[in-house]
């Protein structure tokens, strides 16, 4: 029973999702030849609502890349993505977890992080940011007057969803 | 400290692990956020590009409207339409070729700007640089003198300039600048001023769109005069007086030079048409502004008289001489040109001899009156171009005419008035003049495409799309190895295509919007390996984050898109209603997208943009009327027919230009009579049925002060034609300018 409904659901999903996938893919198909640059795969994933880690992305890319050409063709992208969808490989992260994450880093529970502290975490821990990413984050989220990052204010920006 | 330590360490370990997990989480969220931002940036980019290209297609109608206006304009206020006729159909004014034209202009003591002395020296170019950095304007006298000298110099140059790297260390090639003085100054700062050590090629499109076109082009010409061996300029498709009418250069000149603007524009027209059309380096690298076509013949191009092609939008004369009709024509023409000092009188002489409707009928190739012979003459080139114009007036639909300015070869036989009867003339095969025109237009307007082959460039309305095979063939044919061109904005300022055989170089950063793209220039040394240098002018970008930039760009792109929707409202509604026979006001998202595609012909991801443009009903279908809501703030409209409002809206740029031309003293006011006449003409030309009384009512209601004059800015705003946001943007920029200077 469960099997049937799951596959039926899958077919329904496919038509709508297919359009979404195609749309996202085409946005990066700058040469109009049904390929995208592998560097854009992360962006495509995120834009579709997934949360792969960098390691996940690496793995995915290596499986679908066209012989180290630096490009991925739609014909390989689609089945791989379908698998990702059906297996729910990169589930979304709940907003609440994001708040908790910040609170973990905010040891003294001040309600904010100092730029140096955030930089330290983001560039040294986990899957480190590049300098560019760090600069961008700081510029975007540091409060101008107090020079602190009030993460409770930042979270709504990060999580704001536009229904695509 | 004893057992305390191990506990502490364990706790520490746990904390560290937690911290790491937390960091990863935050990073993932953040990257996702940035990725979504990047998507939006892409879509925004697509919107801008599509609209830009679609806008260029509208060129044709403005050009043919001016032709129409020339032919039918009755005298306003006793002043003939001399600006228009001067701009479109210039009588060779010998006065402008003589030195006294600028010598007679007095420069007051109070003028603190640069006083150039010719021949120019480095002191002069330095003076210009600092003056322009300080927002000063060069006095008209010097502008005219500069242009006159430039014209003299350019006359001696060939169509295709050949350079050699053996004389230089490295040549720098820059793309479109479009009046962005900041970008030019940045290039000079980073790369050095033009000199023997730093030779430059500027690949066209110096003017239009940006606010400092005058300054940009003056600097370029000044350096050209200073170092004619080290400074090279190619003509771009915007070095064209008709393009300038629409894209801002004409307006900028008239605003900065109220007294002498017209003479200055006249000289610019000559100078632009004298710019070389191509540069070749070491016989290996071809540099042109747009591209090539499968007909491009460099040898032929070298041989033609390039200055004859004044504008891509003035179709070459289907010359009456060629059709062997016009003895009388030639005579009248000659009278006109010798009588140059009084153009209006010769015009009125011709006018008396023809009936007002003759020209209009001729445009439609139908029966003529007997007064035909003289009617065939006056405003000669404009009339022949309307013969050849592919535009038929009676269409609101944007695609009723062939989209490239090509000859109407489909008409096999021309009915031409000759004396008392009609003669059937077989249409001649493309004349020399037409071929020359096409070759130049191809060079200035074409774009590369991915697929093989060569097809008319429907987006732009001129030139071709050329494929890798066309490139390959041309390069082989002439022993070249690379084609460098500009003409298209690229996010990184440059781009390769056609297997590395074509480089696009674009030098106006932030072209569409603050933060939209980088600018770049390319350097070539003796080994002819290109090296790219990118930059981004950041008067305000430093203060804005990517988020803010994307939001700003997106906002303005969406606004532009919504305007497009509004401007095509009636056609869109017709389209929607075809899918909504039961009048529910709803269609599916797919159907909505289909209609938009077919009416607007913009290649955009409509489904993705849908949330910004239209509302969904609870059942998931789309309420199509919602596309036309929310056009921004505006004064409540006077009662007008929807037809009129829409027409106003769609052609607002054209209308603005026309108003600006009519408003000779730049007061911002035109008389009611002028307004009425312009309106009647415009709507007649477009074939829009607008009641005379409706126009009168409109005029009366717009005359808010009841003083017989109309402030046309208010008029345009009243129809939500000019977004109030434009003035807000202006204030914002000024504010940030102020901050930048003090901060």
**Termini gap of chain A:** 32 Å
Q: How many beta strands in the DSSP annotation of chain A?
A: 2
Percent helix of chain B, as a range, is 40-55%
CATH superfamily of the domain at 101-319 and 437-535 in chain B: Metallo-dependent phosphatases
From the spread of the alpha carbons, the general shape of chain B counts as: globular
Query: In oligomeric terms, what are we looking at?
Result: heterodimer
Largest sheet of chain B: 6 strands, mixed
Flag low-confidence runs of chain A.
1-6
The end-to-end distance of chain B, rounded to whole angstroms, is 54 Å
User: How many E-type strands of chain B?
Assistant: 21
Largest interface: A-B, 44 and 32 residues
What is the C-level CATH assignment of the domain at 101-319 and 437-535 in chain B? Alpha Beta
Could you say which overall geometry of chain A the principal axes of the C-alpha atoms support? elongated
> Based on helices, strands and strand pairing, what is the structural class of chain A?
mainly alpha
pLDDT averaged residue by residue of chain B: 72
Q: Number of helical segments of chain A? A: 8
Strand order of the largest sheet of chain B: 1-5-6-12-14-13
Report the C-alpha radius of gyration of chain B, rounded: 28 Å
CATH overall fold name of the largest domain in chain A: Recoverin, domain 1
Please outline the helices and strands.
The complex is a heterodimer of chains A (164) and B (743).
Chain A: H1 2-28, E1 35-37, H2 41-47, H3 54-64, E2 71-73, H4 74-87, H5 95-105, H6 115-124, H7 131-141, H8 151-159
Antiparallel strand pairs in A: 1-2
Helix pairs in contact in A: 1-4, 5-8
Chain B: H1 3-57, H2 59-72, H3 82-88, H4 94-97, H5 100-103, H6 122-133, H7 140-155, E1 160-163, E2 171-174, H8 181-191, E3 200-202, H9 213-226, E4 231-233, H10 241-247, H11 249-256, H12 261-274, E5 278-281, E6 285-287, H13 298-303, H14 327-338, H15 343-352, H16 358-363, H17 372-375, H18 380-388, E7 413-418, E8 421-426, H19 432-445, E9 447-448, E10 454-456, E11 464-466, H20 468-477, E12 482-485, E13 494-497, E14 502-505, E15 519-524, E16 530-535, H21 546-567, H22 569-579, E17 586-587, H23 589-600, H24 606-613, E18 615-616, E19 622-623, H25 642-650, H26 652-662, E20 669-671, H27 672-686, H28 692-702, E21 709-711, H29 712-718, H30 724-742
Parallel strand pairs in B: 1-5, 2-3, 3-4, 6-12, 9-11, 12-14
Antiparallel strand pairs in B: 2-15, 5-6, 7-8, 10-11, 13-14, 15-16, 17-19, 18-19, 20-21
